[in-house]
# Entry
Amino acid sequence: MSQGISRVSAWSYSAVRTTAIFTLALACLFTPACSDEPSHESSDEPSPNTVVHTYTLRGKIVSLPDASNPASELKIHHQAIKGFKNAQGEVHPMRAMTMAFPPGPEVSLQEFAVGDVVEFVFRMQWEPTHEMSADSIKKLPADTELVFE
Ligand SMILES: [Cu+2]
# Structure
């Protein structure tokens, strides 16, 4: 755990992580936008038992975790992920949406505010367990143009 995260925050992040995994599963497995034209691509698994895909995304912060409210989450309205892959490495594009992202262990959100335009690495691990995170979050100029389609 990084030094910048209090014990209270760490607890709420793990609750956030669990919630977000289910949110992602629902968003991606059960919406028509996510099942468009599956195609096969090579996947990035570093070993036979690990499947991790990463995407560099841009979006706008919609909400931030609040230690006093365990239900609060980092939510980002992200641009479409045209190359989003499922556990089998098949591409299922994800439309632009507001989604909860558990902050990665190295991430401090203290510098960020709702409304900030950010770029971050979305890490999606499918195997051995489903885990996702937002890593390497950095602020972009406020006038950076974002396309949500
Ligand atoms: Cu999404």
